[in-house]
Every structure is written in structure tokens, then in C-alpha cells.
What we know:
CATH superfamily of the largest domain: Putative sugar-binding, N-terminal domain
Structural class: alpha/beta
Strand order of the largest sheet: 9-10-5-11-4-1-3-2-16-17-18-15-12-14-13
Strand content: 15-25%
Oligomer: single chain
CATH topology of the largest domain: Rossmann fold
Number of domains: 2
Number of helices: 14
Helix content: 25-40%
Number of strands: 18
Shape: globular
Radius of gyration: 21 Å
Amino acid sequence: MKLDDNPKLLYAWYGDDFTGSTDVLEALGLHGVPAVLFTRPPSGLELASFPQCRAFGIAGESRSRTPAWMDGNLPEIFAAIRALGAAVNHYKVCSTFDSSAQTGSIGRALELGAEAFRSSWVPVVAAAPRLGRFVLFSNLFASAQGEIYRIDRHPTMSFHPVTPMEEADLRKHLARQTDLPVGSVDLRDFQSGKAHERLRCALAAGSRAIVFDGLDSAMLEDTAALLSMESANRQVFGVGSSGLTYGLLGYWRRKGWIGDVPALPAAVPTDRLLVTSGSCSPATARQIHAAREQGFASFHMSSATSWKLQMENAISALAGGKSVVLYSALGSADQTKNYGAEYGHALGEAMREILLRSGVRRALIAGGDTSTHAVSQLGLKALTFAAPLTPGAPLCRAWAPGSPLDGLELVLKGGQIGPEDFFARVRDGMGM
Length: 432
């Protein structure tokens, strides 16, 4: 399979959490590429039930899992993806790249993907300029409150409760997670027009993973072009953020494989919104405070509270016409141990009951790990792009045939994503 052959199935991705998975779904939707995001590996028949689809994804959970879990699960998932024959196959990670040798190991996933797709080397594209994430000389930078920080000095990611980022150089960060040699193609190589030459030299020197710098969309498109040159007659496997997706989209448009950027659908207002949050991010805390000021009822779902009572309070508030926020923490200062699979599953079960009893048709989940585990309790088959809201957190349409939740409108938001008034914007159907 050659990247220059314009196949019907352009692209497949596995997201290491659900919010990152919908980030890619948004990128494709914004560029008019029909795509569907499944909650488990689809069969060929399931994929065929979306006949216009040119890309598909699987919303996963490896970001919160151990290398042993990856060893037991990712090879089968990668084999299922490979069998469906997409030209480009992407292990999608968060653009903050937070991971460790013990949890969410990107290095281990890279090794397993290289083996499954028989790749002699793997591109690593972490930059996502649209989200304020940049890679320069292999060092990752990310924005916060209008400022750009090196990731190991970032006010949130350097203090992440599970995988704090202590190293900005992605080559060194990956070296803690894999023994594969890691090389790079940097800004100077792109500016001098010698990126391909540099790539060939790095591969000749034995590199098995290559970190690509990314400052803007042009560099991402140039990276996609390099992948085309190196793809020969094989499926491409890469690791990276949605920046890789945007680079491919630009390249596909340059090649004439996809049309012009389409007019985008607009979200419409809804009467009530249910928000559930397991995020410890200060950005999400500000959003919760803003939502209270904008008329949302809020209820603290912690180990010290009665969840049943808070659920009844939430249902009562929704019945009275109010939108509701259920949350575990208000920023890192209020951080509890309410994160991970157990909490996410419990919150998802509560969310399902509240949705079914209240009749609410639009919901938002804040927090990457929380979204991953909460959505698994809703019984959804797939998601498709519905409308843009804020970069990285689109409005999605849920597919759950035979369930009352079929057609649910759902937003999955990473902890740092969105403006302070985002919850009200989701309720009111206001894009950016």
C-alpha cells in the first residue's frame, strides 16, 4: 500500500484516550473527510455500514494503562486495523506527550506498532500548532493562559497527577520507555530543504524512531510528504498528536485527494447540558466556576459525598430546567485520588442513569482518563463529527442502535481544552 496511491480508505487511528480520539475526528470533519470513531475494533461489515467513510478510528484507553496491558491488547488491535488496509495508521497520543515507562508508555506502543505493521522505522510527530503545542529541536512546548512553556516547566503538565512531564526533549523522554534508537529531523533541516537528506542519514545511522520538529502547518505538511517518499509499497505506521493528522490533510489536499474545505455545520442550542468532570486541571476549575456564574447547578462527586444523593440533586436540577456540572475536583489544589478507571467507570454509570432519567440529549465529559472510562459505560458503538465548538473538543453524534442514547450529542474535553465559558458555549451551541 503506497501513500501516493490515493486509496479509498486513507487513514486509520487508535487514540490512547477518548478525548484525543475525538480531536482527530474533529480534524477530519473540519476538512470534509467522512470518518467514524468506533469504541472497539470494527469488523469489515461494521466499517461498511458507514459507506462514505474514508477514515476510521478506535477510541482506546492505553494512555492510562501499563506496558503489560499494552502487550496483552495492542497487538490484536493493531492487527485488526492493519487488516482493514488503510494507507496511513496512526497511534494517536496527546500533544502534551505525557506518559511514563509505567503508565501510557508511548515507547512500548511504538515498539508494538512497528512490529504489527512491519515498519523499519516510526515517525513521531507531537507538534499540534492549532492547539498551541510546538516541537523545536525535539523539545516540546505548550501554551497555558496565553504563555508558551517548555513542557517540563508547564504549570499543569509538569505536575500531572499520574504522568508529570519531567523531560522536554522527546528523544530523552522516549529513551526512558524504549530501547529503540531515536533520531530527529529539526527546524534547520526543514528550512534548508534538507529534511529528506537528514532523515536518510538518521535512518542509516540506525535510528528506529524519528522525532520531527513542528512549528507550523507547513512543516507538518512537509513531514507528511516525507512519509509519502518513504512509504514505498507498505502501510505507514506513525505515532503522534493530531498535528500528524493536520499535516496529512494538507498533503492530501495538495495532491487533490480531498476537496476544498467545506462549509461547516453549526451546533444549535440545547435546553440543558450535563457536564461530568474528573479533571484536576486549573483550566477546568475555571470553567466550573464560570458555569456556576452562568446558572449551572454544581455537585461535588467525591469519596466524602453521597453519590446517590448528588445524583438525585442533579436530576432534580435538570428537571427544573438547569444545566448541571458533576465534578471531582476544582484544580490541582483540590486534587483527590478520584481519577483513573474506577472513578471514570463510576462516573459513567452515574452519567448514564442521569441521562436516561432526565432525558437530556447533550453531555460533556472533562478529563482525558475520565472520558475514556466514563464513555465505556454508556453503551455507544461509535461517534461521528457533528459540529466544531473549540479546537480539540468537537460536538459528536453518538451511535447506539436500539438504545435510548442513540443520537446523544457528546463533547469530550481534555483538562486544558477550551475557554473559561466553554460549558455555556456547549449548551448554547456557540463555536469559536
